[in-house]
Structure formats: structure tokens, C-alpha cells
């Protein structure tokens, strides 16, 4: 049995709490959130036992006997200090994405976890989506033939963030999927953006207090011993003082494969769609489709003289396993803790690679789309 504490019970932390409460090999022994009203709500919502510690103070966890692990669902600016402190105290850690906002900090935390022989896992939920898992199987089996290029669109009308731009708000999901499907990371990246809503005078984009989907605003009072930043304070950023509403991303992989990503929070046409095109067909992950989230479109060209004629065309809706992706994340974390085996999917090193890519894309965005090498 893994005794676990959930840190932050905002919008996403509540879902983590729900899954850990339902897990047969997990025991939630503490919940930490700086807002007492949230603690009251979750106590009533989940009918928590009196034995579960509800506190606004991170330091109170030191009084919990046999605490094994913590799940951190807090603003990204607090991640580094919280995770470092948790690892130093001997806790396994599941952290909401992104791991931190700085690749150097991410690497430091991964190395610390390895030295302490502790699990550090990042909640990149899409990597546990049945469609993403099946898509990886299809591509690695060679069913698309020679891979040619990929594209993704992640658009909606709001919410418009005031702490990060559309790049840091949205891109991490599609980058994680492309990397997972291809089994490799890009060697260079490019990004261009357009600003309509928030220009000069606004806090710099590209990094900020809530990059990812974390909830539960932590304040410095959480840990008097650790310099956890106040999320109400401005966060320094290397990006221009403009928050891009529209971002175009290009990822170039070692074999020359390119993936193009369209990101916008100022578009009524809500899309969550990603595809990889090969010589034998196209694989499409359409999260918004109620009946066919993963589709394989078969088809290739047959050459007749100077003509290229489409042949072998068909549409195959792929059957997916049942299961909530976040439940799979939580189960993988608990299994990794019990077996003391680092997860191959969504490890701290995977999270570090994604933060490194986002940081390089921010540099490209600052430089009007100049290619930035990751090698």
C-alpha cells in the first residue's frame, strides 16, 4: 500500500484525488491546499475520513507517519521548490506538467531522484490515452509505410491566459504525442506567433505561474523553509511583453520528418486533431470525434506513365481499449512506486525533454521564427 498526499486540489488536483482515493493500492493520508474552503469542499465531496490530514501548510506533511509519495498539482512556478523538497524528504513524486519552467531545473530534479532512488513522474495524460497508445503501435508496426510529415491543430475560443502565451498553454500535448509516436525528439524547432489581444504592458509570455493545467494557488506560507514563489507576483521571462494568441510550430526530427502545429485560443473552430502521413496512409487522432477518435486512412499511389493514381483506398476506425487516461497515469505511478521501477512513459526525463523543446520554441518565437537547434 502506498500512502500518498495530494498537493493542490484545484481543477486538476481534484481529479488526481478522485483517482487515488479509488485505487486499491493507494491510501490518501493528507491533502494540502492554501485555500481552507477547498479543503472543506473535498472533504464533503469525497466523504473523507477524519484520519486524512487537511492542511494549508506543506511543512505539516513531515508529521504524517509512513508517507511514501506526493502528487503535485500546483502552478508550475512552484514545482521546482516543491519537488526538490519532496525528493529531499524521501517522497516519490508525481508532478503536473510541465515538470518546471526551466530545463536546467528539470535535469537537476531528475538527477536528484536518481541519486535518492525515487520515482519522479510527470502527468502527461495524453501519453496514457488509448488512442495515443494504439497510434504508437500502428506507426511502429510500419502500417503507414515511409513516414513523410505530421500536422496538428489545437484551437478554441478561450480561455485566454494572462500568464503564458498559446505556445506554453497548448503545445506540450501535441509535442508529447509526436515524440511518443515517432520514438524520438526533434533536433531543431521553429515558431512564429501573432498577438491581437495582449500587447505591450502585459506580463511576458512563454512562461508563467500556471503553464499546464495545474490548479491550487500556492503561496510562500506553504513552506517557510523553501523559497516557493508567490503566484501573484510577476514571473520573469525571456519572451517579449506580448502574449501570442496564435502560434505556428515546426518540429524537425533526425530523419528529416517535420511536424507542423497550429495553436490558437482565438478561434471558434474548436479542434483537437493530430495526424501522421505516410506513403501507405494517414493516421488521424481526432479527440473531438465521438465515434472515431483514431482512424487509419489507407491509400497509396500507383504510377502509370506520368500519372500517379490513388489505389487501395479504405477507411479503418481503430478499436480502442476502455479506460480513463488519468486513471492509467495514477495506476502507473503507484505501480512504479511499489516496484521501485522508473516509468518508461512520462518519466521525469521525458518531461525534461518537453520543457527543453518549449524553451527552444520560445527562443525561436523571440527571434521571429529563426530555427533553433536542440543538439
TrEMBL record:
Q: Which UniProt keywords apply?
A: Oxidoreductase
GFO/IDH/MocA-like oxidoreductase domain residues are: 137-283
Q: Does the keyword Oxidoreductase apply?
A: yes
Q: What class of enzyme is it?
A: oxidoreductase
- Enzyme Commission identifier(s): 1.1.1.18
Give a single Pfam family match: GFO_IDH_MocA
Note down the stretches annotated as region Disordered.
Answer: 200-239
Name the UniProt record assigns to this protein: Semialdehyde dehydrogenase, NAD-binding protein
Classification from the root reads: Bacteria, Bacillati, Cyanobacteriota, Cyanophyceae, Nostocales
